[in-house]
Structures are given as C-alpha cells and as structure tokens.
Design brief:
The complex is a heterodimer of chains A (about 775) and B (about 350).
Chain A (H helix, E strand, L loop, with lengths): L2 H14 L23 H5 L4 E6 L3 E8 L2 E9 L4 H16 L7 E5 L13 E2 L2 H12 L5 E5 L4 E8 L4 E8 L7 H10 L4 H6 L15 H13 L4 H20 L9 E4 L1 H5 L1 H17 L14 E2 L7 H10 L13 H18 L1 E2 L5 H11 L15 E8 L3 E8 L4 E8 L4 H14 L4 E9 L2 H8 L3 E3 L1 H12 L5 E5 L4 E7 L2 E8 L7 H10 L7 H7 L2 E2 L7 H13 L4 H20 L11 E5 L6 H14 L4 E4 L6 H14 L10 H5 L3 E4 L16 E6 L17 E6 L11 H17 L3 H8 L4 H6 L1
Parallel strand pairs in A: 1-4, 4-5, 6-9, 9-10, 12-15, 15-16, 17-21, 21-22
Antiparallel strand pairs in A: 1-2, 2-3, 6-7, 7-8, 11-20, 12-13, 13-14, 17-18, 18-19, 23-24, 24-25
Helix pairs in contact in A: 1-12, 4-11, 5-7, 5-8, 8-10, 16-22, 18-20, 20-21
Chain B lengths: L1 H5 L15 H8 L9 H15 L7 E3 L2 E4 L15 H15 L4 H4 L3 E3 L2 E3 L6 H9 L8 H36 L3 E5 L7 H4 L2 H6 L5 E3 L7 H13 L19 H15 L3 E9 L9 H10 L3 E8 L5 H29 L10
Helix pairs in contact in B: 2-3, 3-4, 6-7, 11-12
Classes of the chains: A alpha/beta (about 775), B alpha/beta (about 350).
C-alpha cells in the first residue's frame, strides 16, 4: 500500500465513524435509529443486494430486495463516474433504505475498478456478470452480443454434457463496431438521439462505410452526404457496418446459434441496429442451414430484452448472492466522497504534468502577445472599384475573401461545404455580391475544388494549397521559415526556402493532430468550441496523453477519465498533445531547429488559443530562440493566398475570365449518383457524383458511360483521391492520349531506360 | 544481353523479372521476406519469386550477381566506385528466404548463380564470372567468357552513349528555346516504376523535359565550359573530381549524385532539381544537406521526395508536383537568366 493510500484509509476511517467512539464494525450492534429509523426486525431479514455497473458512458444500478428489483436507474456520467456512483448510492440510501454495514454491494463495468473497494464492494468481471444473468433468465440463449459505448463483446453458450460452456470474446481497443462508432457519425450528421433511435435499417439501400475505424467511417459518411445520399441510408449503412464488424471480429469462426440475445445500450435503443442483426443472422442461418426450432420465425429467435441495460447488474446480483455473506458489505459513501472531493486530486497531481498555463503571469504574457481582437476589414470602397477574389474550397468549408487592388482585405465569408461544389460556390458568390462588390478584376481558386471549378467559375488562376498558404504567410511575414497550418481534417507543414515551399508535410489520412478531433472531444463534453481555450486554461494540472492515432488517443482519454481527470483537464492535455502529433507524428520532424526559427501558425484550429499556447510552448521548447507568430487571418489564409496570387496574375494585365455573378447564380446543373458513377480505380469504390453544368463552349463527354452533350461541363465529386477525378477507362484513354503527346515533345530519359534496359530488346524484335 | 548473347544463349531464353510492383511482391515475395531495412532490396524477394514461380518457360539459371563496384563515368576521378553494401549483399540475404523451409531453387530445378563481381575493374570480371558459371554452363572456357564480358561492356557503353547523346539533344533544345528542364538526382533503381513511382513523369506531363544525372552528357566541350574554371583555379583536378564538396568519395551512386548537384548548379536551363530517395536510405541521408545547399546556392529550385516505399502517396505527390510546377512557371525564366549571367559565355549547348 502506498503512503498515499494509507493516508487515505486513515482519513476515511475517521470520516466513516464520526460518532463511533471505539473501533469495530459500526452497525453490528448499534441502536436501530442510527439506520435512518429502520426497525430492528428489518435487519434480521436477508441483506439487500446492490449492483452497480460503471460503464464508459453511463452508470447503471439495481437494488434487489427479497429477490425482487426494488430500485433501479441508469444515467450518463459525462466522465464523472465516481460522482455519479456517490449520487446513486446516496439516493439508494434515502429512497430505498440502503444500509451501510448490512447490505451488500457488487460492482462491474470498465470504470468500477477503483470505486468498488472504496465502498466495500466486490468487483465482478462484466462479461461473467452478463453471462450469469443470461443463463438465469434465458436458458435457451446460445449467443449474446453486447455492444457498449466503447467496447463490444460476444458470448457463445455451448451445451455440454453437464451444463453449458461459455466462450467470450471482447474487444475494447478499437472504435469499430461500438456505440460510439454510430453516435460519433450521427452527431456529425446532426441526427438527434431520438431520431437516431427510430431510424430503420430494413428496406434502406446501403452504402459502403468503413467498418474498421470510427474516424474513417465518419469520413465515409461525409463523402456520402456530399454526394447527396439521404441521412437515413447513411445511418442504415452504419448499422450494417457495426453488425458486420461484430460478426467479422468477434465470432472467431463460431456460428451464432439461435436463440440470440442483444444487449447493451446501442442494441436496445437503435431499432435499425436490431433490424440489421435480424437481417444478417437470418441470412446466416439460412446459408449455413441451421435448423431452427419448429414453428419459429428467425426474427422471433433474436430478442432484445427491455431490461437489457441492467443485465450486467442483474448478473452481479446473481453471482453476489452465492458469495460468502461477509463479501461486499457496504461501507457507506464516505471514502468515495472523500475520493471525489480530495483523493482524486492528490492522485492526479502525482501522476500528471502541470497545466497549459504555468501561472497568472504566464497567462498574462501569452494573452498580451497573442490574443488580439479579430482584425477588422479595411473600409469598403465604392461599388465601382475593382477587386480581387480568392476562394478556398476545403473539405469541410468553402471560404472566399475580397482584396482591394492594393491587397487590403475588404471582405470575407464562408459556406459549410454541402458536398456539391457548385452550390458552395454559388453560396460564396451570393455573399460576395451582397457584400457590395460588383467588379471582379481577378479570381483565383485553391483547395480541392480548384480544378473542378476553374472553368465553371471562370477563374484566372488555380493555386495549389501549399502555394496559397505560403503566399498568405509571406505577405504578412516575409521572413517566415515554416508555416504550420492545422485545419479541420488535415495538417500541413510547409518549409520555406528561397521564397518557395521547398518541402512540406501533409497529413490528411490520419486524424491525429487535426482540429476535428479536438472538436469531437469538446462536443462530447458539451463544451462549445469557442469556450475551449478558457476551460482548458482553468486546468491546474493535466494528464499526459500519448501521441499518435486518434482512435488510441480516444481510448487514452477514456482511460484518463477513469483516473478521474475532468473535462477541462483532458481538454488541456489534448491541446498539449496536439503539437506533438502535428510536428512529430504527422510531420515526422524530429529536429525543429533544422527547419528554421520563424514559425507562422495558421489554419482554423489555431483560432483555439489553447492550441496556440501549446504550440508556442512546444516550439520554444525545441527552438529556444524561435519566433512564433499567429497569422492574423488564420482561418482564411488559404483564400487570402489565392487572392494574392490573383493580384500577381493581374499584374500581367489580362482581363479576368470571371463569368459574372449572374451567370454563377443561374448555373444550371444536374447531379447523377448511380452505379455508373462509382469509381472503379481501386477496391474502395467511392460513390462519386457527376455534377454536370451547362456551360457555353464546353466539349461534353460523348465517350462517357454517362454521356454528356456539348455545351456541358462535368464536375466530379465524392472521390477520395485524385485518381477518382478521372471518370473511367474511357476518359483515361483521352487523358493518356493527350499526355503521350506532351511526353513526346518533352522527353524523359528514364522512360528510354525503362523501354530498353532489362528488356529482351532483340528478342522482342525477333518475335 | 551483350554478355549472354556472346555466350551463345538465344535472347529468347533470357528472361528478366518485370518491373517492381506491389502485386509482384504480394504474389511472389510474400512469406519470403528477409530482414532488410532497404526497400529496394526487400523488393528483390518478389523478383526472385516471379522468376522461380511465375514463368511459362522453365528456367535453368537464376543469375543475380553480387555487385561490388560499378562502372562509372567518374572512375579514376574519385576514391572508389563501390555499391552500397546492402545492395552487394542482397543476393545472399534474399536467398535465405528461399531456403528457409526447403531449397526452393533445387525443387524448381534452378541453379542459383550469384558471382561476386567488380564491374568497375573490367580485367577482373571474366575470372569472376567464369568461376561463377563453372559447372553451370558446361564446356565454358575462360576465353569465351573474356570475349563475352568484352561484348557486355560494349553493349553497356553503347547504351550509355546513346542516352547521353539524347540528353545532350534535350539540353540543346532547351538552350535554343530558352526553356527549362528538370534534372532528377536519384539512384538507378528509382527509374523502376515500383520504386521511384514515376514521380518525374507527373512533372513531365506539365511540359518539362526530364534528365537523369546517370545519363548526363559528359562531352569534353561541355565539361570544360562547366568546370574548366574550377580546374584552372585548382579546386578540382578534373570535371569529375568532387573533392571540393565530398571528400569521402567511395560510393559510386553517392559520388554521381553529388556530381549531379554540381552540374545542376552550373547548367542554366536546369531550373529545378528533383531528388528521390527511398525509405530510411542510410547512403542518401548524409547527402541531403550538401546536395540541397549546392543546388540552392545557385538559385536553382530544389525539391525532394524522401522515404519512398511501396505505396505511391498519390495525393501528396500531386500537391508537390503542382507546387513545383507553380514555382517553375513563376521563376524558371528568372532562374535561367540569373544562372546564365553567372556562368562564362560561350556555352557549347547554345552554339548550334
């Protein structure tokens, strides 16, 4: 026992028996009145059995008296597991007469480990508990799937000579197949909980959603939304993915036999998930020719008991009542209350690092250096003045800025990307026009949409993202060495030399280090993103999180939650780990000193001052003489860079190809998403959408599987890599022919080597 | 082909493994990998496997020499022209994966021939190869092998000369049109589509001719124009002397890469250099900074693609390529003019 724990025991002992003069277990022979006025006869009855299931998102508890459930409840704990348990125990004492020293408590669930001993409870492994309950209540059940918030389990019961053997599989390391997997994406799709619960699976058309990783699934769902797939179908596809993942990873070659029981929150609450299970299991049984009990429909063999949530608790009771009577005697709440109020802080202070802010002075210095009121736009010129427009079509938002010909920022606006780049563009130009601008002398685009929209909008320049960001940074800080752009879904590090982007690191494949993750965690705590920094700065200490994969980070957070770290402390820690993820994990830059000493931070995530503070501390820790600056327009840097490139172009004196506000607003387009538009370049088979826009002079695509008449231009969206922008083999042929022409004119020595070396040149001729 | 042709082997009976590809590695190399940090060396398992299992014809001999030194246009001007030790040892290393459970070569009736060859010392090669093929090609004489090696070198020189001439034509076209070209600095295996991922082809598609340092023209007139001044000033002894930038000139490919950097800095129409290097290449690592500095000092654009392995990072390559072409478009004219002004007049490339 550590010194701390000893101190804790001592202290709680004192707290536990304030009115008890001597040692000895309280209550055994004390006056009846001490137990809240209960009569003497009450205590001669068998003790009540309490079971508490402390899960990753909720706490569930039941109290069984005389073999009947007398009290039960479940509530979300919002990471305050110990607090919620104290509250439940208190209510059981006052509402149902739970009695310390007499009644018995049993604990289960992933968060119960440290709580149980503090109240004298006995810990029972959760799968064992569930299995016990199932055996008691449902003797015919052979397969159980329990899906929790962040884990999933399967239990196979096999009849043997004397009884039943149990085989249990469980996974809690990956988000695929768990409740979080569904909820995370549903939140992103803005589906309210009640609606999610009612959304069906049966009869919906399904789309491919990565079942492996919650983060990828979210991206897939995003893509589907963009291509116009109804939310209902996406949710149905998520249910499909969850069932698939459970069957794929947790059956390990066993066939789930009837009867089947579905347990856990997601299985109980989501009607669609139940339907997905029924569909898949019925299909599986038919395929494997499983004999079903006579006269029973497959669907009737798959049950979701209304009490499903409490099965782990009921199992605890089941097991608990067979334990020796001295096991699990309830000690009262005092120790746990002490832990909530003091113990956890002492424990954490020992484990954790200091907070983001070292003290009042540190915060003041930081604020005076970095926190600035949002810069206001320069005064509007008269409508007649010509302006330059830059647009940044990013993966989640589209932004536009208007610069004067003197390169002053006049206006900026954004549109949340709805997946149809044409609509996004229309929204931006509507706002620009409403801003009072009429004469566009130059238009430049950047971001993924630049190639798609260049002709449609009549842009003069298409600027690659790196160049746009570098131009924006160099405009304000001509001596910048490194730009770190952290956006919602990607991280870019650009290393500048000779005024060019000499090297860059891009991370858009993996969620670690990007802003979306921060946002996701803030949402989970119900904290608006704007309040993130203030809350994170409140933390006096914080846990140290491991850098790396977002999914692991997520489970690390759950882990820290279990240790009792609060929302603000975890948020601080998350901000603190972000620079590590950005520079070392995503950027692979071990030696920051080698890339320079003037760092520019930009990108939407740097609006979060907690992140900026962590970045500044991290960079200065590595490069002591570093100058770290925050771009004044961190979110709009891409669009500003594009507009600056338009200004550059303008110096050449050309007339803008901009099609005009009216033309853009009146663009006629159709979008097509069907089998022919699915991308066939690789096995991912992205569901693409062809958006065809009427555009005078466009060549059309007569060779396409989805032919396009002359005077129409095709914009492809919904692809997840650049390859998907090429429609199919037919287009590849057209593109290749053009490419071959260029290649003939501009030779590549390596191609000659490839043609002749390591080939049987003479043999080929001889054939 | 020159060597085997001269030994009287019908060209149709000489089979090369195909270009490296993920498919090749998956289908033929799986489970036969041996521990090696070098990505190109790892790929060899797939090549061996393809030759052993993937042929319509039955093969008798698998020839994979352990190359100790490489013939280089820099021979005699540098300390040595050694190959990377990993590359030299690769045939022995990769072989292990095919012998672990059973002798796969013997089962397939294939003789595995891995002679140790010092290709940069031509007089030694006939003996080395003769010994390597002893008992494999019955009746082979020393004289036959010596003659065949001679023809092999001739074929190699003819191939090199042809490509150098081609490169010179490209440079002369650039000079005439005042257009930019790109020079790739990489190891020879980066020309393999499965290892270099044809990254330079994406740049070529934007209308830039692509030269590779390996086949850069070495004609005396051009060399004298580029390096004559340095030689007369005593910095270097010959155009292929790199003691001014790389004193420990032992590795053949490394030497050539450093030389390529020097040449790129001097030729005005090379507006940009692209460096390719494979994942964790220990030979390349120490050259990163000197190569970059030599090139950037001349005002030439420099971009590098590092840590290449089995997957082509298509998205990031696309952005990189667009970044490069943006700056080329913006600065190439300026760079060519500045570099021209810095060099002596009378460039032989611009004479015709």
């Amino acid at each position: 026992m550590t010194a701390d724990a000893e101190r804790m025991t001592e202290r709680s002992e004192r707290g536990l028996c304030p009115r008890n003069s001597g040692p000895g277990a309280p209550g055994a022979d004390g006056p009846a009145t001490r137990w809240g006025g209960l009569g003497e006869e009450r205590r001669s009855l068998p003790p009540r059995l309490v079971a508490v299931d402390v899960g990753s998102t909720t706490v569930k508890a039941v109290m069984v008296e005389d073999g009947k459930v007398g009290w039960q409840d479940y509530q979300r704990h919002n990471t305050r597991q110990a607090e919620k348990v104290v509250e439940f125990l208190g209510r059981m004492e006052s509402e149902a007469g739970l009695t310390p020293g007499r009644d018995r408590v049993f604990f289960t669930g992933s968060g119960a480990g440290f709580i149980a001993p503090l109240v004298g409870g006995k810990l029972i492994q959760e799968v064992v508990a569930v299995a016990a309950c199932v055996e008691r209540l449902h003797p015919d059940v052979r397969f159980v799937s329990e899906i929790g918030g962040e884990d999933m389990k399967t239990i196979f019961f096999t009849a043997t000579g004397t009884g039943k053997s149990k085989q249990v599989y469980m996974q809690s390391a990956c988000s695929g197949g768990t409740g979080t997997f569904i909820e995370k994406t549903a939140r992103k799709l803005q589906v309210p909980g009640e609606r999610l619960a009612e959304m069906p699976y049966a009869g919906m058309s399904l789309h491919k959603v990565s079942s492996k990783c919650g983060i990828f699934a979210e991206t897939d769902a995003n893509t589907l939304v963009k291509t116009g797939v109804p939310v209902e179908e996406i949710i149905a596809s998520l249910f499909e993915a969850v069932v698939y993942q459970n069957l794929a990873t947790l059956t390990k070659g066993n066939t789930p036999m009837p009867e089947v029981l579905l347990l856990g929150g997601p299985n109980l609450f989501f009607r669609g998930l139940q339907e997905a299970w029924r569909h898949h299991l019925a299909k599986l049984w038919a395929q494997r020719k499983i004999a079903l009990p006579e006269g029973r429909e497959p669907a009737s063999l798959i049950n979701v008991p209304a009490e499903a949530l409490y099965y782990a608790c009921l199992g605890c009771v089941e097991i608990g009542q067979n334990e020796k009577p001295e096991i699990g005697i309830y000690l009262g709440r005092d120790k746990l209350t002490w832990w909530v109020e003091q113990g956890q802080h002492e424990q954490k202070a020992k484990d954790g690092a200091r907070g983001l802010i070292a003290g009042e002075g540190d915060l003041a210095t930081f604020v005076s250096e970095y926190v600035r009121p949002a810069p206001s736009c320069a005064e509007r010129p008269s409508v007649a003045t010509s302006v330059l427009v830059g647009c940044d079509f990013g993966s989640t938002t589209a932004k536009a800025v208007v610069l004067s010909e003197d390169r002053e920022l006049l206006f900026s606006c954004y549109a949340l990307s709805k997946g149809n780049p044409i609509e996004d563009a229309q929204s931006l130009f509507r706002q620009v026009r409403e801003g009072g601008f009429a004469d566009v002398a130059g238009l430049a685009l950047t971001g993924y949409g630049k190639d798609l929209l260049k002709d449609v909008l009549g842009a003069d320049v298409g600027v690659v993202e790196t160049v746009a960001h570098a131009t924006a940074a160099l405009h304000f800080y001509p001596d910048a060495d490194v730009i770190c752009d952290v956006g919602g879904t990607d991280v870019k590090i650009m290393i500048l030399r000779q005024g060019t982007v000499a090297d860059f690191r891009l991370n858009s494949q993996c969620s670690s280090g990007n802003g979306a993750f921060l946002q996701g965690v803030a949402e989970r705590y119900n904290i608006p993103l704007e309040a993130y920094a203030d809350r994170a700065f409140e933390a006096k200490a914080m846990p140290s999180l491991t850098m790396g994969c977002g999914v692991f980070l997520q489970s690390d957070i759950v882990n820290q939650q279990r240790k009792g770290w609060s929302a603000e402390e975890i948020m601080a820690a998350l901000a603190a780990v972000l620079p590590v993820n950005v520079w070392i994990y995503a950027g692979q830059l071990q030696n920051l000193r080698s890339v320079g000493r003037k760092f520019v931070l930009q990108g939407g995530t740097h609006r979060n001052m907690a992140v900026v503070k962590a970045q500044v501390d991290f960079i200065r820790g590595k490069v002591p003489d570093a100058e770290v600056v925050l771009h004044p327009y961190s979110g709009e840097a891409g669009a500003i860079g594009a507009a600056l490139c338009a200004a550059e172009w303008r110096k050449g004196g050309g007339a803008s190809r901009f099609r005009g506000f009216d033309t853009i607003a009146a663009l006629t387009y159709t979008s097509t998403t069907r089998a022919e538009t699915v991308c066939k370049w690789c096995p991912i088979n992205c569901t693409r959408t062809f958006i065809d826009v009427q555009l005078p002079g466009a060549k059309g695509r007569s060779w396409s599987k989805v032919p396009l008449a002359e005077g129409w231009e095709r914009v492809i969206s919904g692809n997840s890599c650049p390859k998907g922008l090429v429609e199919d083999v037919n287009e590849m042929r057209v593109v290749k022919a053009k490419l071959e022409e260029v290649k003939r004119e501009y030779p590549n020595v390596a191609e000659m080597v490839r043609k002749d070396a390591f080939r049987r040149v003479s043999a080929a001729v001889a054939r | 082909m020159g060597l085997f042709g001269a030994l009287g082997i019908d060209p149709r009976n000489v089979v090369f493994s195909s270009d490296t590809s993920e498919e090749q590695g998956r289908q033929f190399g799986k489970g036969r990998g041996t521990v090696d940090c070098c990505y190109p060396v790892k790929c060899i398992s797939g090549h061996y496997g393809e030759l052993v299992f993937g042929q319509k014809q039955k093969l008798d001999i698998l020839f994979s020499p352990m190359i100790y030194t490489l013939p280089s246009f820099m021979s005699g001007h540098v300390a040595r022209t050694l190959t990377c030790p990993r590359v030299m040892a690769a045939p022995e290393n990769i072989k292990a994966g095919f012998l672990k459970e059973a002798d796969v070569f013997a089962e397939a009736g294939i003789k595995y021939v891995t002679p140790f060859v010092s290709l940069d010392e031509p007089p030694l090669v006939p003996k080395q190869l003769f010994e390597g093929f002893q008992g494999v090609l019955p009746g082979l004489t020393r004289e036959e092998m010596a003659k065949a090696v001679g023809e092999g070198y001739q074929a190699l020189h003819a191939f090199n000369d042809r490509l150098r001439r081609k490169s010179r034509e490209v440079l002369e076209w650039c000079a005439r049109e005042d257009r930019a070209c790109l020079l790739v600095l990489a190891r020879p295996y980066h020309m393999d589509p499965g290892i270099g991922h044809e990254i330079e082809v994406d740049l070529q598609a934007y209308g830039y001719p692509i030269l590779w340092m390996q086949y850069f023209p070495t004609d005396p007139d051009l060399m004298d124009w580029a390096f004559g001044e340095d030689i007369r000033a005593g910095f270097i002894k010959s155009p292929f002397d790199i003691r001014d930038v790389w004193p420990s000139s032992y590795s053949s490919n490394t030497n050539e890469i450093l030389w390529g950097a020097k040449v790129a800095a001097r030729i005005p129409w090379i507006a940009c250099v692209v460096r390719l290097s494979s994942y964790e290449c220990g030979m390349d690592q120490p050259t990163y900074t000197p190569v970059q500095q030599i090139i950037e000092r001349s005002g030439t654009l420099f971009f590098s693609f590092q840590d290449l392995d089995s997957t082509k990072p298509a998205g990031s390559v696309k952005i990189r390529v667009e970044t490069i072409t943006h700056y080329l478009e913006k600065y190439a004219r300026e760079i060519i003019a500045r570099k021209k002004a810095a060099m002596a007049p009378g460039c032989p490339l611009a004479q015709r």
